Amino acid sequence: MSVPNPLAHSILDLIGGTPLLELHRCVAARGLQGRLLAKLELFNPAGSKKDRAALEIIKQAKAEGLLVDGQTVVELTSGNMGAGLAIVCRALGHPFVAVISQGNSVERIRQMKALGAEVVIVDQSPGSIPGQVSGADLALVEDRAKAVVAEHQAFRADQFVREANCLAHERTTGPEIWDQSGGEVDVFLDLVGTCGTYTGVARALRIKNQAIRTYLVEPAGAAVLAGLPVTQPRHKLQGAGYGRTNLALFDPALVTGYLQVTDSEAEEAARFLAAEEGILAGFSTGANLAAAWQLLAGPESGATIAFLACDSGLKYLSTDLFP
Ligand SMILES: Cc1ncc(COP(=O)(O)O)c(C=O)c1O
Fold it and tell me: What is the pLDDT of residue 2?
């Protein structure tokens, strides 16, 4: 056993520095060549990679005077950014209001409330399915978020546009993957929501080694960044794949290739990861593993592929992910 982390004095000191785990069974069970490295972001205090972005956005806003002492923070969230912001805002003395679609899992809503957030829940658009948040649903949440910001004269964290979202991963997640792997990464991939993680990690790894390939993952049937027609706007990959083409944090120059993953591929991968590797993670992690399997079975056979286990599977126990 390695020496445990030193005594911490703030929960904020425990954001980041997550383990990197090699997934031997995920490679062997499929008879593939290569290595898979999973960055276990479920070890963050609120259980997801978004804690890093929450901390960086708030720190930067305070440093720039955009957020003043005691001012309310508001964010449109699928739950993970909100849980991270709830922790960060409480620690730094800011009230926090999360605006979320009813389509997200109930665990996320309860977690944010438990962590001290006020949560505004927005009904889904007509015909929408619980557990599947569409672009139309998100537009309704956006309208409500704008109104809540005005009402509280609040600072909006605005994860879809703030560069600090990328910077969090460029300064921490990417370099951690590089160091923990001993510089042995050939490929990075990520299912994108805001694109903050993808852009930040891709930038950091390419600075270390320009030859590293980076693949952007989207839900099959809603792969708008790949330029494909939308045939399936609804999917189960919560927190990602919103079908938005106007993503401020997306940079096509950072994309080696585009991959698509179906709901059932993501579910199968998440279940395998839990049962065989002991990692209880969510839908987007399953999507990342499914995409990594595609690459090892195809153009990246033999490569070392790193990806994020984005959040904890405990956030999905009310869904059909782990029946
Ligand atoms: C579980 C999960 N997976 C993936 C993503 C997408 O990450 P990003 O917004 O950095 O693209 C999010 C974003 O909130 C998320 O919560």
Answer: 64
- The DSSP letter of residue 90 is H
In 64-217, which residue ranges form alpha helices assigned H by DSSP? Answer: 80-92, 106-114, 135-152, 163-168, 174-180, 196-208
Q: Is the pLDDT of residue 134 over 80?
A: no
Q: Please identify, in words, the CATH class of the domain defined by 11-48+163-316.
A: alpha beta
Name residue 237's amino acid: L
Q: Do domains 11-48+163-316 and 50-156 have the same CATH topology?
A: yes
Annotated catalytic, 301?
no
Mean pLDDT of the chain: 95
235 compared with 99, residue with greater pLDDT: 99
| Tally of CA atoms within 13 A in the half-sphere of 246 that contains its CB | 2
Range of lowest pLDDT (18-27, 82-91, 244-253, 264-273)? 244-253
Instruction: Judge whether 78 counts as a catalytic residue.
Output: no
State mean pLDDT over 223-250.
89
Q: Where are the domains of the chain?
A: 11-48+163-316, 50-156
At 174-220, the pLDDT tens digits run: 999 999 999 999 999 999 999 999 999 999 999 999 999 999 999 99
Specify whether the CB–CB gap between 287 and 191 falls below 8 A.
Answer: yes
Tokens 């956005």, residue?
57
Residue with tokens 């209001």: 97
- Residue having the nearest C-alpha atom to atom 6 of ligand 1: 193
CB atoms within 10 A of CB 193: 25
| First and final C-alpha spacing in the chain | 34
Torsion of CA 90, 91, 94, 97, to 10 degrees: -30
The CATH number of the structural domain formed by 50-156 is 3.40.50.1100
Answer yes or no: is pLDDT of 75 > 60. Answer: yes
The active-site residue, picked from 78, 134, 284, 312, is: 284
DSSP code of residue 211: T
Q: How far is the CA of 161 from the centre of ligand 1 (A)?
A: 14
- Catalytic, out of 49, 50, 236, 315: 50
